[in-house]
Design goal:
single chain, alpha+beta, Fructose-1,6-Bisphosphatase, Chain A, domain 1, D-Maltodextrin-Binding Protein, domain 2, 2 domains, seven-stranded mixed β-sheet, five-stranded mixed β-sheet, 7 helices, globular, binds D-MYO-inositol-1-phosphate, binds calcium ion
């Protein structure tokens, strides 16, 4: 099995970023299941491009990707790629310029590589198991800020508004009073990257899907961060779940508060 993930996947994800950036003006979009959940032709184009190119480099690869039907048994295969072709589709439709492409790589269920690209800033975040996390090739680490100095980001789980809206905003309110300030970006994958390089110090969302957090979890861990669900339990990359991540101090204190 080839393991030169950075050199193989970087040009592929960057080319996919060009497809995203080639979209100009109004985008056609369709409604998916759940509240305010959309897909554009670019989500589909980027996903098709990534799967085709990755298959050329790794003929035995299996895929779990947001805009296709998935078989969760793929997760335990020799090499499984978990893909979010555009994370932050609503931002993308509105030209908010805060969206990303996310690829997590698992070998027999173990996370071995993650890459997240913000094509608007040409920022490529990567991490390989045991080798640290990088932004455009430069090593990054989480901050060492304490909770009272923390910039905390949260996702609003917009597709589960009725079910999780109260919990989301109760949690955000509690943490807002314990932290310095709060953000909501619209791309969970970028929230993980911003945590990994110390732009924020804590991130949570009450429900995310595996394609939202697979690459991000690897990047956060390799940057020295801690990532669990909101109860402090280890993540299961096969199912949707809550996410809490921070540096050692903020993760621990946030868990105590919640
Ligand atoms: C969404 C974004 C958003 C988060 C949602 C995700 P999508 O991903 O990451 O920030 O709040 O929970 O589903 O649908 O744009 O790929
Ligand atoms: Ca997503
Ligand atoms: Ca998506």
């Amino acid at each position: 099995m080839r393991t030169d993930f950075i050199s193989t996947l970087s040009p592929i994800i960057k080319k996919a970023g060009e497809i995203m950036l080639s979209a100009c003006g109004a985008k056609n979009f369709k409604q998916k299941q759940g509240d305010v959940n959309f897909v554009t032709e670019y989500d589909e184009k980027v996903q098709a491009f990534l799967i085709e190119e990755i298959k050329k480099a790794y003929p035995n690869a299996t895929f779990i990707a947001e805009e296709k039907d998935n078989d969760s048994s793929a997760f335990n295969s020799e090499l499984c790629f978990i893909i979010d072709p555009i994370d932050g589709t609503t931002n993308f439709i509105r030209d908010y310029k805060t969206s990303s492409i996310s690829i997590g790589v698992f070998s027999k269920g173990v996370g071995v590589f993650g890459a997240i690209l913000n094509p608007y800033l040409d920022e490529l975040f990567t991490a390989e198991k045991g080798k640290g996390a990088y932004l455009n090739g430069k090593k990054i680490t989480v901050s060492d800020k304490d909770l009272d100095q923390t910039i905390f980001a949260f996702g609003s789980s917009p597709y589960y508004k009725q079910e999780l809206g109260e919990q989301t905003f109760d949690t955000a309110k509690k943490l807002f009073f314990a932290c310095a300030d709060i953000r909501r970006s619209g791309s969970a994958a970028l929230d993980f990257c911003h945590l990994a390089c110390g732009r924020i110090d804590l991130f949570l969302e009450c429900r995310l899907s595996p394609w939202d957090f697979s690459a991000g979890a690897i990047i956060v861990k390799e940057a020295g961060g801690v990532i669990t669900d909101l109860n402090g339990k280890e993540l299961d990359f096969r199912i949707p779940q809550s996410i809490l991540c921070g540096n050692q101090k903020t993760h621990k204190k946030a868990l105590e508060i919640l």
